Structures are given as structure tokens and as C-alpha cells.
Amino acid sequence: MAPLIGYFMRNGPSGFGYNSTAEQVANGLDLTGKTYLITGVNAGLGYETMRVLASKGATIVGLARTVEKATQAAAKAGVPEGKFYPIACELSEPSVVRMAVREVVACRAGPLDAIIANAAIMALPKRETKHGVELQYLTNHVGHFILVNGIVKQLKPDGRVVILSSMAESMAYKKHGINFDDMTGEKEYSPWGAYGQSKLANLLFARELSKRLPEGQVCNSVHPGVAATELSRNMDQGPIAKFIFGTLGPMIALKSVGACAATQTYLAVHPDAKGITGKYWASCNVSTPSPHGQDDELAARMWKETEALVNSLEE
């Protein structure tokens, strides 16, 4: 049953909306001969996106923490072996991400029609760091920053980049949005503030990358909606989360996984999304992010600061 709120949400200008699924937005498309790179294919939205695209004939370059997880997920989704290229990519390990970049470049999948930066971790209850960086920021943003910049030259001239953000970007630390002077989270940490910071960085990354891509290539960010996926396995299980995911979820809050995967699928494959760039999307239509998410100066600073951080993490 669709969540109650969905009954009051009409489809937007794209013809799709809150209840639209990845299957529906890809309906009738023949993706034979097209290649899509997706991170986090082993579960949740990444798995569903892979399954739908592969069912339309696409070749998938599938990234997960291990080759085994990626391969098992592809087999479960019915992706033909000859159309699947599994690559290990632990986004919290810069050296592993760089290795994944080399493998993507070397694999015989061919030029990419789209990159879908989907993988994430969410709302860790306790502050964790790795390489001197708060773990959600490192995994969700920095890892994808290294990966996407490393493989973006593999895009076709009309290729697309889709970066998974979230409406949680509005929950980033209020004063600065991103605490560039506190990358460890030692001075200020909350599970949702840190998660929101990482999702704001994803949004700003997409916004800035859209300005740097050659003409013809596009980049957009996405709020997928809220689904009870494996993303929440490490999240803070406080009273608010329990209320949303438990009591209210089945009635009003939670989308199906198929509905949550719809917007990134739409942006990656739908003909009507061609040429649209630098936007923030929700329910398959252009939406409006927080004031921090519209700040071009903050986006430019985020890029510069992330480059410096990445350089400090060089092998």
C-alpha cells in the first residue's frame, strides 16, 4: 500500500511524482548498448536501480564494498554475467577508491552513459572518524568526490551524473552548513547534523560539478524519499527515528524502495531529463533545497576544501 501522503501528491511537470517507481519511469525504454555505473548495488536503492536498468538491457558497472557482495546482488537481480562488471569500492578508504577508479578505467564496459553515486551511511549514533575525518562525511561525500572526479572522463559526450543527496541536507549544522574547521566532528557532533552535512556536501558537489562539466554533460542531485532500507542499519535509533520508521512509516512516511529509486533512475535514463543540469530533484521533479544548498559560494568553497582534504589523503 502506498503511504497515505502519496494519495495527496499529484504528479509534477515530468509526468511522474511521489508514488512513481523506477519501473514506471523506465517503462518502454530500451537501454541495450548503454552502460551505467552505480555505487552501492548490493542493497536498497542501488540494487533496485541496477535491477531495473539491467531489465531494460543495460550493462552495469556495479560497485559495492566487496566484489562478492556486488556479484551476489547482480545474480539475485538477474543481471546477465556478460553485462555486469563488479568492482570493490570501500568509500571510506581513499586508497581503495583510487584503486576502483583504475579498475573502472581499465574494465571493458566501455564509455559510461551515467554515473549514479548512490551509496551512503546514515546517522551514526556515535561519532566515528577515519583518516582524521568524520565517517559519514568521508564515506558519503569525500569517497564519491574521489570516485566521480576520477572516472568522469569515462562519460559519453552526453553523459549524466546523478548524486544522491537528501532532504536531510537541511539538517546540516545551521551556522555554516559544513564545519570545514571541524572535519573530525570533535567540536560539534550530532548523528543527524553530521549526516545532513554529508548530504549537503553531496548536493553542493553536484551543483559545482554541473558548472565544470563539458557542454552536453549534466549533473544533478536527488532527494530519494524515505524508505526503510539497509541505509538505516547503523542510524541513530532515537525516539524521532523510531516514530518515523516505526509508528508512522507504514502509514504516511515511507516510500517503497522502488519509489525511492525512481528519481535517480529518471535522471539517469529518461529522455526528458536530457540537458537539465545543476538542479536538485525530488519525486522526479525539480525541487528547492535549503538556503545552504543554493549557496554557490559555499559550493565553490566545498570543492576547494575537499580537493585540499583529498590531497592530504594521497597514497
Automatic annotation (TrEMBL):
<dbReference type="Pfam" id="PF00106">
    <property type="entry name" value="adh_short"/>
</dbReference>
<dbReference type="InterPro" id="IPR002347">
    <property type="entry name" value="SDR_fam"/>
</dbReference>
<dbReference type="InterPro" id="IPR036291">
    <property type="entry name" value="NAD(P)-bd_dom_sf"/>
</dbReference>
<keyword id="KW-0560">Oxidoreductase</keyword>
<protein>
    <submittedName>
        <fullName>Putative dehydrogenase</fullName>
    </submittedName>
</protein>
<dbReference type="GO" id="GO:0016491">
    <property type="term" value="F:oxidoreductase activity"/>
</dbReference>
<comment type="similarity">
    <text>Belongs to the short-chain dehydrogenases/reductases (SDR) family.</text>
</comment>
<keyword id="KW-0521">NADP</keyword>
